[in-house]
Amino acid sequence: MAERRQLVLDLPHRTALGRDDFFVTPCNQEALAFIDRWPNWPTPLTVLCGPSGCGKSHLAAVWQEQIGAISLDQSDFRSVISRIGPKECCFVLDLTDGITDEEALFHLYNRVTEQDGGILVTAPSPPARWTFNLADLESRLRAAPVLNIGQADDELLEAVLIKLFADRQLRVEPGVVGYLLRRMDRSLGAARDLVATLDKAALAEHRTISVPFARSIVEASQSS
């Protein structure tokens, strides 16, 4: 008889980036408190920085949803500047790969300032470590408040793991989350990838996620 195997359907899971899905812990509470001060920021632009996987994109999405800001790609800077008005003057910018057009960002900054708007920038490091060619832009960005989000702590990772398992309606035995916390990479992205891997393996093998099962999956992934 031919071996029967479980058919695994790789169904997509929505990444939850709302306020209710943002877990507040010591590593991010100061940044969240500042974000909530909008529109009472000291300057139009604020920089949110931290290591990859710390949750800065999620916090930026919280602010974006809260005030109706627009996520803006650098390639759109010049086309957007002339359209900025009272109803569309708040933007989220991802500068992970650096600034590609300093002059366009400078004019965007000035136009947003004229409209009493705001810009929330996400980046891995603060402007003090960036290299600039345009002095006027450099002076503005280096004067901007910098919100640092630290590496995800155990409290945050535990909450995220529990929610990820719950979102997928997975049966997880006691001790699994604690085991994973001691062995996983310290990032939210790693938590999402790990839960997805466990979900797929548990479905394929008709298994409840226990510590021995989680151990086998983690050890297999580390040896591959």
Task: Write up what this structure looks like.
The longest helix has 18 residues, at 188-205. The chain has helices at 29-35, 56-67, 77-81, 102-114, 135-142, 154-167, 176-183, 188-205, 211-223, and strands at residues 45-49, 70-72, 90-94, 118-123, 146-148. It has a five-stranded parallel sheet, sandwiched between helices. The chain is elongated, with a radius of gyration of 21 Å. It has nine helices and five strands, in the order H-E-H-E-H-E-H-E-H-E-H-H-H-H. Mean pLDDT is 87; it is low at 1-16. The chain is of the alpha/beta class and 224 residues long. Helix 6 (154-167) runs parallel beside helix 8 (188-205) and helix 7 packs parallel to helix 9 (211-223). Helix 3 (77-81) links the parallel strand 2 and strand 3. The two termini are 31 Å apart. It has two domains: 19-148, Rossmann fold (3-Layer(aba) Sandwich), CATH 3.40.50.300; 154-223, Helicase, Ruva Protein, domain 3 (Orthogonal Bundle), CATH 1.10.8.60. Helices cover 44% and strands 10% of the residues.
